[in-house]
Design brief:
Blueprint (H helix, E strand, L loop, with lengths): L7 E2 L11 E4 L15 E4 L6 E7 L3 E7 L4 E9 L5 H15 L3 H6 E8 L2 E3 L4 E5 L4 E5 L3 H6 L3 E5 H12 L8 E6 L3 E7 L2 E2 L32 H4 L1 H12 L6 H6 L5 H25 L3 E5 L7 H14 L7 E4 L6 H12 L4
Helix pairs in contact: 4-10, 6-8, 8-9
Length: about 350
């Protein structure tokens, strides 16, 4: 469990020009799924109010209570249990963070956002499926709202992290942006014409499951052969280096660290970047994004990743301009930043 910490300040974008009434799907078990469901207005919070945000991952879940300036008033990290037990742990983490506040601060916590992995139905407040954590069709309903005594928004973790990077991070000011979250898996968001693209059931971009190595690729856990994730994810890079050299490595970061001195590391990284570029080419031709923003753990490689990816994409394009490839501003905090911004805004607008 997290320990009580003094307030610390984290960069938070100015929201003063983004106030007013936004529209969001408020979780309602009776509502029909998809964008056709009846939506209710949710007002963006005033700057004197606080928010609680939880970012649930396959290994750990993180939570913070923050103010409008980004000051962290309470924070914690706990391990994510398997299965439906994870939801009790989410509730307990929220309890812990709220208990760390003064009475005045607790009274000013006006809304929460809980970000979940896998497939999420935010309209009906259902955690549909997560293979990593092992839940299926968990009806969340009002369990957190009743427990914490505040409205709680439920959303997909990558959708919110990508939205935050687009609207308030590296993509702010641009209408056509692709955010790619690179880690154990690969996924992201696409914004076109100033709108975040969502499927009828709320998903964003499953870029990691675009097959790019049909003939000689590895089988992906999804069942296909040669998906982007089998070559370009963090786990795939570490696995490929170990297979090529016979030397196990802890992570993709270790492979990037020896890129300039180890020919095998250079070859593995080059193949990963090639596969990622192949996976993004169709999307680039279809939507012509101005920017590709890289987030997630692999984005820590910095220019060693962004520069060759941009060069590889540019080499393969003929009829559309090559987008710039940049790093996200929020880094590993994109989920927590997104949860706070989503809770404060009330909608992914």
């Amino acid at each position: 469990m997290g320990t009580e910490q003094p307030p610390t300040t984290v960069h938070r974008p100015d929201l003063s020009d983004r106030t007013g009434v936004a529209t969001s799907a408020v979780p309602d078990a009776a509502a029909a799924p998809g964008p056709a469901a009846e939506q209710q207005p949710v007002t963006a919070l005033t700057d004197d109010l606080l928010v609680l945000g939880l970012d649930v991952g396959g290994t750990t879940m993180k939570g913070e209570v923050t103010d409008a300036a980004g000051t962290v008033l309470a924070s914690g990290v706990v391990a994510t249990p398997q299965g439906e037990a994870a939801f009790e742990t989410m509730g307990a983490l929220g309890d812990q963070l709220l208990a760390e506040l003064t009475d005045d601060q607790r009274d000013r916590v006006a809304r929460a956002a809980v970000l979940l992995p896998g497939i999420v139905d935010p309209v009906r407040s259902i955690a549909v499926f997560s293979s990593n954590v092992g839940w299926r069709d968990v009806h969340i309903g009002n369990r957190f709202t009743d427990r914490w005594g505040i409205p709680v928004l439920i959303e997909h973790d990558v959708a919110v992290a990508g939205w935050a990077e687009w609207r308030f991070g590296a993509g702010r000011g641009h209408d056509d942006v692709c955010v790619v979250i690179l880690g154990t898996g690969i996924s992201g968001t696409l914004s076109v014409g100033g709108r975040l693209m969502r499927s009828a059931y709320g998903q964003t971009g499953e870029y990691g499951h675009i097959p790019v190595r049909h003939a000689d690729g590895l089988r992906c856990p999804c069942g296909n052969i040669g998906c982007v994730e089998t070559v370009a994810s963090g786990a795939a890079i570490a696995r490929a280096y170990a297979k090529r050299t016979g030397h196990a490595t802890a992570s993709a970061a270790d492979v990037f660290a020896i890129l300039d001195t180890d020919p095998d590391a250079k070859a593995v990284i080059a193949e990963a970047i090639s596969a990622l570029a192949d996976g993004l080419l169709g999307l680039i031709h279809a939507a012509c994004p101005e920017l590709i923003i890289l987030g997630g753990g692999l984005a820590g490689a910095g220019p060693a990743l962004t520069e060759p990816l941009h060069h590889t994409i540019a080499e393969r394009l003929r009829v559309v301009p090559a987008p710039r490839v940049v790093l996200g501003e929020f880094g590993a905090r994109a989920g927590l930043m997104g949860a706070a911004l989503f809770a404060r805004q009330g909608a992914l607008t």
